[in-house]
Amino acid sequence: MGILEKFKEKVSSFLKSTSNTLSIDKVKTGLTKTRMNIFDRIKSAIGLGRKVDEQLLNEIEEILITADIGLDATEKILNAIKRNSSKFNTLDSDSLLEIIKLELLNIFETSSQEINSNPFEINTQNLPHTILVVGVNGVGKTTTIGKLAYNYKKLNYSVLIGAADTFRAAANEQLEIWAERAGVPVIQQRQGADPASVAYDTLHSAIAKKINVVIIDTAGRLHNKSHLMAELEKITRVMRKLKPSAPDEVLLVLDATTGQNAIQQAREFTKVAPITGIVLTKLDGTAKGGVIVPIAMEFKIPVKFIGVGEKIDDLQPFNPVIFVDALLD
Ligand code: GDP
Ligand code: GDP
Ligand code: MG
Fold first, then answer.
1. What does the pLDDT read at residue 115?
2. Atom of ligand 2 nearest to the CA of 199
3. Ligand 3 centroid to 137 CA: how many Å?
């Protein structure tokens, strides 16, 4: 079975599980800048057809690298073009885009990105499902939590948010605004309170009220790694007093507009916390959305969601086929 068939099978179960939450239009619109950066430039580089020579390969290499697809993936794609080029006298843009598409799917598959058939799946035998959200300041944690809460509610799950970013003064207020938009309650304490204490209160209350999904916001101070690690460990230890499997998920939020910084942050966070999934935000704000490729390749952690805007329904479940189609069609 070819890679495309293999993925197509997975796409249909993905489409079923996300029928309430996925908007392919939003994914497409959100990727406009990156698509223009890759697709449009490739189209114009190749025109009506060109011989596969050093010069063409150099141009394609430059386009892929500018879109932040990374050296490793770019090399793989160039090799795929060379492998396939004997089939063509001249390469036209449709064939070239098809080669790139298949190679990207290959890369996503070997990077554990194919297992994401239902990003909202929770074990209903082990409730409340607990999600810890981590990442540095400004990447979009709070916004993502609001969007996640909105989606879980849409799927008829009850949600409780814990405001364990007690560091920033405005954090509670901002989380409250998002929770209100999503129509879910928040547990909070005063600024400066122990984040672990907020996490404990939240989970305690969720268990008492038989809430389905608990989402914990955290402060992301990466400037002090040992402190961050201690804080996340303490939150985990305290939650486990109430639910031994907690946190069921640890989502790392990364900002796509920061390019290589996002990769560096992922390196740091995967050292201090058992990250189970990645959320890549602000894809709508960058032409370098290709950064999702090196992130998938290096960390082999599923990208669960992508952020494609600032509205509450702008968090989209990630699927490689839909992503690659949106990028190259
Ligand atoms: P936090 O510090 O990690 O909690 O980040 P916030 O949730 O406060 O978000 C920081 C900024 O990023 C806010 O202005 C958000 O509106 C913005 N933001 C978050 N996600 C997205 C997204 O997917 N697209 C765009 N364009 N902006 C986003
Ligand atoms: P610390 O030494 O006081 O920081 O206590 P822990 O590290 O055990 O837990 C951190 C925070 O979580 C505490 O300050 C409490 O707010 C909360 N917590 C932990 N365990 C319990 C518990 O058994 N009951 C209650 N009510 N809160 C707890
Ligand atoms: Mg925040």
1. 64
2. 12
3. 7
Query: Domains in the chain and their CATH numbers?
Result: 129-318 (3.40.50.300)
Closest CA to 236 of 184, 187, 164: 164
Q: Report whether residue 30 contacts ligand 1, using a CB cutoff of 6 Å.
A: no
Counting residues of the chain whose pLDDT is more than 70, the rounded percentage is 98
The answer, as to whether pTM is greater than 0.90, is yes
What phi and psi values does residue 141 have, to the nearest 5 degrees? -60, -55
Q: Whose CA is nearest to atom 14 of ligand 2?
A: 197
Residue nearest atom 16 of ligand 1, based on CA coordinates: 310
* Ligand 1 contacts CB of residue 289 (under 6 A): no
Q: What is the pLDDT of residues 58-110, one digit of tens each?
A: 999 999 999 999 999 999 999 999 999 888 788 899 999 999 999 999 999 99
Residue with tokens 């494609």: 308
48 token code pair: 């009506």
Which alpha helices (DSSP H) does the chain contain, by range?
3-17, 24-30, 32-35, 41-46, 54-66, 71-85, 93-110, 141-154, 171-182, 195-208, 225-242, 260-272, 292-299, 320-328
Ligand 2 close to Cβ of residue 203 (< 6 A) = no
Say how far apart CA 211 and CA 104 lie, in whole Å: 39
* Residue 3 pLDDT class (50, 70, 90 cuts): confident
213-218 and 159-164: which strand pairing?
Answer: parallel
Q: Is the CB of 200 under 6 A from ligand 2?
A: yes
